[in-house]
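Exercise 7.
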Amino acid sequence: MLSVSIGPIAMSVQRGVLWFAVIVTLLVAAYLTRQRRIPVADAIFSILLWAVIGARMAFAVRYSDDYASPLWSVLDVRDGGFDRVAGALSGLGYAVWRGWRNPMLRRPLFVALSVGFGAWLTVTGLFMVLEKTARGMPPTALVTMSGADTSLATRHDGRPMVVNLWATWCPPCRREMPVLQAAQEAYPDVQFLFVNQREPLWTVQQYLSAESLSLRNIVRDERGELAAYLGAYGLPMTLYYSAEGRLVDSHFGELSQATLRHAVERLRRAASKSDTKISDQSE
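Solution. The predicted structure, written as tokens, is:
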């Protein structure tokens, strides 16, 4: 399962687990606040805020060229561009500072953060165990633009692979298409595959023509079986497969140039390390 749906709201599993851990932390903090009459909840809110700011600013600095025009795009956090390490360090630094200033806050603050981290670690581990056997390429049938039967495994040519699930009616899908098309040209060592979801051939052709898009590798998921198999309950969804055909990462929601570049760079580094390892073993 790559995403979860709560009524009309859909989000990635990773983000859902993170929100769950945050809620658990806040509930524990609220309980301790009432019990000890210490502003634990206020401190937790501040820690989370500093963690988010630190994670976003570190990511924006790292990919400053991609956020330079327009500069305000740094504030649009819908692309999911966050540096987790910087965020953790930022939040931890603020927590240490608050604990240093208020010794009575140290123990309850540590308890609330530990329970939240434990909740995140437990649920994340559970999902990893459940999905361990579902990391290969799905066997679901797809259809090429010419009407021939195909699948992800059939289309895979041995390069690292980026698979984008999209539809013409989806505004975020339409907005990220130019970014994906540019990446298709910028990274010839990475294979891009665009899987349209449950739309007629003429609808896809009309959209590509109207938008002057030149996407080279398009297939159609006529009945949405791929999305159902993956547990993708919303669009767009982008999957990242290694050169060996293993799912190594995913992104739910609109991609920016920075977040796509970040994911592709990780994919390419992993492929380079794999090639080096194989080369060393053969010598």
